Amino acid sequence: MNSSFFHIYAILLKEYGPQGWWPIGTVYRKRLSLTNDEKFEIIVGAILTQNTAWTNVEKALHELRRNNCLTIKALLETKQETLAQYIKSSGYNNQKAERLKIVAQFLFQYSLEELQNMDMKELRALLLSVKGIGPETADSIMLYAFMKPIFVIDAYTKRIMSRIGLCSKDSSYDELQAAITHNMEKDTENYNEYHALLVEHAKRYCRTKPLCEECVLKEVCMKRM
DNA sequence: GCCCAGGAGCCCG
DNA sequence: CGGGCTCATGGG
Asked: Is A68 helix (H, G, I), strand (E, B) or coil?
C-alpha cells in the first residue's frame, strides 16, 4: 500500500483541485516574488489567524485597511488599544494587538528585503526569536510571504497524518515536518498547495468527529471503520 | 448553549 | 521536554 505523503497529496489534489491560497493563486507563473505590501499583509494575516477561522481574520484585515493601519509605520504609531478594537473580530485581540506592535518593530529593524535574502535556517531562527511568532506562524510567513520551500504543520496536518498512521499522536512539530519534508521534493508551490488541501480536507471530512464513510483517503487510512 | 477555529507563551513537575 | 492553562470572537 502506497501511503506516502506524496501519494496523499496526489489524492487530495485530484479530489479538491488547486486551492489558490494566500494569496494570488497565479503568482507562481507571473512573478518570482510578492510585493512588499503583499508580504506585509501576509505576515499580519499569519498573526491574526492563530487559532482562528480565516473568515474572522478577513474582517479584521478589512478594518485595519479601512483605518489606514495596514502599514508598518501605522502599526508603530497607532495605540495598541486602538489596534485591539480594529482586530476584535479575529479573537484574542489584546494579545494579537501586542503581537502586531512587536512584529511591526521587528519589520522596522529588519527590512523585508533583508529578510527575503536570508538563508532559510537563519530566517527561521530569527522569526522564532520574535515574541508571538511560533513554529507554525514562522513557517507560514516563510512559505507564503517569502516563498521559501518549507512545509507548514498545523493542527489539521497532525490530525490527518496521525489518523492515517503516518505519524504518532505525540510526534512533535519538528518531527512531523521533517518526516514530510524528507519524503517530498522541496517545492514551494507544492508545499503551499498541500497545506491548503489538508486544511480543506480536515474541514470537510477529517473533522474532530470524522466523516470516514465518504472520505477520499479511507483506502489509505488506518482509522477507517 | 456548545463546540471549534489555519497557536503561542507561560508555568509547572 | 511535555502537559495544562489562558487568551476571545463568530459561525455552525
From this structure: coil
Q: Which nucleotide is nearest to A175 (CA to C1')?
A: C1
Query: Mean pLDDT over residues A185-212, rounded?
Result: 93
A41-100 per-position pLDDT tens digit: 999 999 999 999 999 999 999 999 999 999 999 999 999 999 999 999 999 999 999 999
Nearest one of A27, A22, A34 to A58, comparing CA atoms? A22
Per-residue flag: A162 CB under 7 A of strand C: no
CA A225 – C1' B1 distance (Å)? 31
- Least Cα distance to A145 among A61, A39, A70, A47 occurs for A39
Distance A49 CA to B5 C1' (A): 9
Tell me how far apart the alpha carbons of residues A176 and A174 are, in angstroms, rounded to a whole number: 6
* Residues 162-201/A with CB < 7 A to strand B: 199
CA atoms of A199 and A201, how far apart (whole Å): 5
What pTM, to 2 d.p., does this model score? 0.94
